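1st attempt posting a full record on here, be nice pls
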Amino acid sequence: MGQYSASHHPRQVRQSMWRIAAITIPAIVIIGSLLGYLSNSGYSNIWFNALDLPDITPPGWVFGTIWPLLYVMMGLSLAMILSARHARGRGFALILFFVQLAANFAWSPVFFGAHQVTLALYLIIFILMVSIATTFAFARIRKAAAWLLVPYMVWLCFAAILNYQIDRQNPDAERLVPSASTSQMG
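the predicted structure (as tokens):
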């Protein structure tokens, strides 16, 4: 299998993984939630409420429930890979993970903060593509880590469709209400 070196018993690896998860899970949940809050994500955003939202737009509580759960699964998945210290391909897998995570963290500021709906659509497509690559890279190291990313990719597909429909139904979305970045400049 090659997952465990001769000096690392599976129990030791699991214990290491949970110690790492105690850092990765809260870090991802807190950073993701904080960026969403600072970007004024959701239905409390005046600009978002002014948009012509598609019928598939879920109620606000769905986003508030789904994202923390997805962030927990992402943090656990990351911990599994971080604890596989000598796994082949680990470095590349981690680079992919952090690229998609940084892009994920940028989405709310781009969409809700800057009101750049089209740019947010391109960004979410990028996130999805890198997430797929990350999942395949994680699968070579720990299959469970890859499976933990599947709900995230499913949600990204839905979110991309929603973002596309919002973009299509709101061609002038950027001009509806001044963005946080432009309203403070003058």
